[in-house]
Automatic annotation (TrEMBL):
GO terms for molecular function: 3'-5' exonuclease activity; endonuclease activity. This is Nuclease SbcCD subunit D. The gene is sbcD. It comes from Streptomyces wuyuanensis. Heterodimer of SbcC and SbcD. It holds the Pfam family Metallophos. Residues 1-217 form the Calcineurin-like phosphoesterase domain. One of its GO terms (biological process) is DNA recombination. It comes from the Bacteria. Belongs to the SbcD family.
Amino acid sequence: MRFLHTSDWHLGRSFHRVNLLGAQEAFLDHLVTTAREHDVDAVLVAGDVYDRAVPPLAAVQLFDDVLHRLADAGVPTVMISGNHDSARRLGVASGLIARAGIHLRTDPAGCATPVVLRDRHGDVAFYGLPYLEPALVRDEFRTATAGHEAVLGAAMERVRADLAERAPGTRSVVLAHAFVAGGEPSDSERDITVGGVAAVPSGLFEGVDYTALGHLHGCQTVNERVRYSGSPLAYSFSETDHRKTMWLVELGPAGEIAAERLDCPVPRPLARIEGRLEHLLEDPALARHEGAWVEATLTDPVRPAEPMARLAERFPHTLSLVFAPERGDEDEAASYAERLRDRDDHQIAEDFVTHVRGGSGPDDRERAVLRGAFDDVRVDSAVREVAG
């Protein structure tokens, strides 16, 4: 059986205020075309269909359109809700939609009720485990503790129990939305830490032929049978080095796995550049980033004038500006009291300016402003003392 594994569409999400609906539509076009070209038997979506519980209407329209197109193509689709989705909203009319071959799994109580598809080698049971928020599903799974490992482990026990009752040779696929130990996170996933522990061991999925994971945005292989597809688009500059793909998975007659990464469309490359402003504006090696979405980290000791406007002249798609001034040599071992010894208030204020600028102290105009501020404070204190 051949299927596409994807996840984390985050329909409706923007990138540093850049609207991504057009890029998301291009990905969904690519998904439907790929499903047709590779004659897949199913499409799997492992959660975070939307970016928030109440998505914008344009995102809902994209979702509605792709469901119609997959149904028209005769491609069964199995999808689960993620931690960004509203499970109840996403699951509305799921029973009716299933008649068209679109199977939404959003209710934790139904995690052991698979979608069963058949190829010439027999049945394949697809179990959809929606994102399981421990505090909300603890009672459903009757776990002793409210933690990710406990509730996901209990859900998998139900899956294995159902699988054991099926005909010998039935192959199995699990969709889950979780942070599995060994996975590499990025900055754009919402934290799901509970009690200090977010990661669950990959061993929870033992006994299953393939586990299609969602939540982490980088495509990665935890082990041969447990994989993240990653998000189809980059949603933070921490994903600059990601190759955005889907998994095309072949499930053999005895559960053998062959997986191939298929590239997703890239609306615009990402680039992180760092250095002093003049260097970034003049370095010929950075010409390759002039058409990219750029995050620039400026290391100038003193914040330059109009840095964003000047960067945009060369890098018109600069979206993020970070300041990390170069630091001069400082005695880090010296205590705070030692650094203040024999310094008056005005000198301490100048030292602070020098520190935050990485070694560049205030100029004459700024010294005058500081001196005037301290004079005003002293006068005000004297007046208060007399009045008191």
